[in-house]
Design a protein that fits this description.
This protein is mainly α. 77% of the residues lie in helices and 0% in strands. The protein is built from five helices and no strands. The longest helix is centred in the N-terminal third of the chain and has 42 residues. It is elongated and about 65 Å long. It starts with a helix and ends with a helix. 14% of the residues are buried.
Amino acid sequence: AIRVKGLQMADDVQEQRNAPPLTRMLERVQKVVGATLLVGTGATVLVLMLHVVFNALSRSFFNRPIEGTLEFVGNWYLPIIVLLGLAVAQQRRQHIEARLLFDRAPRSIQIEFQLFTYALLTVLSLVIAWYSYVEAWRNLGVGLTAGVSGVVIWPVTFAVPIGFLLFAVQLLIDAVLLIHSKGATLAEGAE
């Protein structure tokens, strides 16, 4: 069937209205958290670009680079961009997937594979979040810096547990939505 874009949007709105309250709430949480993370990550990319450009201009025109640029880029900006981007990439289905066996499996098994993958990744993410949380507190205690430069980096080590915790929450939301869609599919098939 050919659908006009406006009619497709109307169908999507109707589907959202017919969705159970839990599904609507989870989708709203996803939108808010995703938008917040996108703004935070985008702002970090902007600050990184400005820092690098000002460093290059300062080096070229004043023969004096901004001290600690490499440490800030490698130990502050990039970890924040990557770790906060984990949950956003999962939400937008932009992680790389190797679906060799998955695509050949029957649809019912695909759902179980996906749920198993979500469960495994959630557990792994929570383990990483816990370990990195303990490590971040240890880094706070010693006042971790970036070697000789003295750039303080212990605060950004808290991005690791936050990033993996948000990733785990996104995986749980995806699992709940998948279970709900499986139930809806089964209900439609029974009609």
